[in-house]
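If I may wish for something, please sit down with the protein I am sending here and say whether C-alpha cells and residues agree:
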Amino acid sequence: MTWATDFYFVKIRASGTCSDKQYGEKLTERLQGEDKDLFLDFCNAYGGFMGDAEVDSFVIGFRLDAKMIFDTFCRDDK
C-alpha cells in the first residue's frame, strides 16, 4: 500500500446512508436459507468492489492534484 492509500483509510471512511442500511436489514429479515446467503454474499462482494473503486479514485485524484501543484509551484519555466 502507498502512503496515499493509508491516508485514505485513516482520514476518509466511506459509509452507506441510513436508508441503504435499513433496506438491507429489511431484506435480510425477509429472506431465508440459500436466498439470504446469496444476498449477503452479493452485499459483501459489492462492498469490497466499491471500496476498491473508491480507493483507486482517491489515489488517482491525489496524484493528479499533486502533479498540478508541483507543476504550478516547482516548475522552472525558461
